[in-house]
Amino acid sequence: MSNAVQEFSRFAHEYDSYNVIQAEVAKTLVKMIPVSHHTTVLDIGCGRGEVYKNMVTSDLSFENFIALDSSLPMLTLHPSAHTIRKIHADFNTLDAFATISSDHNSLILSSSALQWSKDLDFTIGQMAQKSPTAYFAIFTANTFKTLHQIAGISSPIYSDSALRDTIEKYYHASFELKEYRLSFGSIREMFHYIKKSGVSGGEKHLSYKQTKELMKQYPLDYLEFEVLYVTGNSLSI
Ligand SMILES: C[S@@+](CC[C@H](N)C(=O)[O-])C[C@H]1O[C@@H](n2cnc3c(N)ncnc32)[C@H](O)[C@@H]1O
Asked: What does pTM read for this prediction?
């Protein structure tokens, strides 16, 4: 994976591109997995199935796929098949993990979702008990970095180092950081995107007035994203 910043334009994509970066991230994550066969693949925070869609077009094979998400509308949009079990659950709770059984040949994945863990120690600790091997892609606090600096607010999501520290408690892990830029035709479009994107909480804590002020001051025609890619071997299995 190259460390160069990967650039995207909101207008280069015909389809609804609210999840242009997430789609790219899921693709990259699945490409990191060596060709292999797994009994069960677990996708934590599966959304509408970006990981699953990339898995079925890859050389990877599996018998069962467990798709877990706390959003019912997302799970409804996830592909269905007799090999797919959908679990409607919150990965911040024990319930989410209680009914998942796994074995030594299962694989756990999570793309663009774990930045939302309320207690990363808990979520990662639970995940490490479910599968010997893990691949994660997690947005870091450097996502929307300039925007946060100008607004004088701190990111609502974990920093790269906080993520690494927690993950290393449960996994023998290797890490790769990757930056992305998404450019826009207008500042209005950009702020509309921030509201809709699932990456950083939609900057809920900014008032309308603060947002307007921020729009005047924002110096870039793109948004910044940073993703930590993780390959992990569980220390508990
Ligand atoms: C940005 S989307 C990524 C979806 C998908 N993995 C992808 O790569 O396109 C984040 C997903 O995490 C889910 N999510 C957020 N918090 C969650 C939680 N506490 N428990 C389970 N899923 C959660 C959301 O519902 C959403 O589907």
From this structure: 0.93
